[in-house]
């Protein structure tokens, strides 16, 4: 995979930081790499992802990320707000995901997403909850 | 996990009680030290500015209702989506009803108590 980070990124120990623009850049590049296992490392074991349309955690979340990202969908996202309170950050993004449906036709998902990030004991910031609200298209469709 | 959600829902009920009693000191214990509240969209307040705003807001005798819409709870961090209404009065004393879909982030403290760390009452557009 070809990463082109303008920010520090250690694949073995990713840190989204509490800077919303840095977090967004890392999130985008890792998502767009198509590597579901690496993308899952941006989350904690008990973090909740609602990308699939259902709250997933642990092994179910990893399995979904691997499957969903394997077809290399392309995420675009822009930060709309960011509040950092101590060891927690709440960020908002406008997102769109372009992919390919089972029949080969292009698909588009877009909407707004609320992300909660948590600082770990080791200082790294990782996703605790993501909650997309789709304006167009659902992953489960 | 259901016990944690029950704890959080109880916490919301107690928050509503403290709010409706107009008890600013009691309400303060529902927030973390670093908490951010966004009572007016785009204007996050923290620290003493947040406390002063809430005290002034409560002085008008507002009444709040809160109905949980969704809860996402990890071991120590929760995201709650809440439908709320507040009946209060505006600066001229005229009755007004405020409403919104709140986006709240709570943290589990070392004392075992969940507290609001981000309180964004207009966090989701309808």
TrEMBL record, chain A:
Domain of life where this protein originates: Bacteria
Record domain DUF4440: where: 27-127
Matching InterPro entries: DUF4440, NTF2-like_dom_sf
Leader sequence residues: none
Gene3D superfamilies given in the database record: 3.10.450.50
Pfam families, per database record: DUF4440
Protein name (database record): DUF4440 domain-containing protein
Organism: Streptomyces doudnae
UniProtKB/TrEMBL annotation, chain B:
Bilayer-crossing regions: none
Superkingdom assignment: Bacteria
Any Pfam family the entry gives: SnoaL_2
Record-annotated SnoaL-like domain positions: 15-114
Protein name from the UniProt record: Nuclear transport factor 2 family protein
Organism: Streptomyces doudnae
Organism lineage: Bacteria, Bacillati, Actinomycetota, Actinomycetes, Kitasatosporales
């Amino acid at each position: 995979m070809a990463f082109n980070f303008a920010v520090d990124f250690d694949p073995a120990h990713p840190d989204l930081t509490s800077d919303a623009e840095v977090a967004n850049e890392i999130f985008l590049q890792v998502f767009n790499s198509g590597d579901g296992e690496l993308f899952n490392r941006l989350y904690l074991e008990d973090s909740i992802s609602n990308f699939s349309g259902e709250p997933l955690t642990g092994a179910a979340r990893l399995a979904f990320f691997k499957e969903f990202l394997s077809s290399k969908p392309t995420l675009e996202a822009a930060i709309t707000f960011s509040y950092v309170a101590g060891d927690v950050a709440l960020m908002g993004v406008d997102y769109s995901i372009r992919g390919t449906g089972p029949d080969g036709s292009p698909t588009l998902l877009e909407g707004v997403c609320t992300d909660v990030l948590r600082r770990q004991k080791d200082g790294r910031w990782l996703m605790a909850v993501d909650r997309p609200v789709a304006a167009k298209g659902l992953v489960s469709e | 996990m259901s016990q944690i959600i029950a704890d959080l829902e109880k916490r919301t009920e107690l928050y509503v009680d403290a709010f409706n009693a107009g008890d600013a000191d009691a309400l303060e214990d529902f927030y973390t030290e670093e908490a951010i509240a966004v009572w007016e969209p785009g204007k996050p307040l923290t620290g003493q500015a947040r406390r002063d705003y809430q005290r002034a807001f409560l002085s008008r005798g507002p009444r709040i209702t809160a109905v949980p819409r969704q809860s996402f709870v990890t071991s120590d961090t929760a995201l709650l989506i809440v439908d709320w209404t507040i009946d209060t009065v505006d600066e001229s004393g005229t009755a007004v009803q405020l409403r919104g879909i709140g986006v709240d982030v709570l943290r589990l403290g070392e004392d075992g108590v969940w507290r609001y760390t981000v309180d964004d009452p207009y966090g989701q557009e309808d």
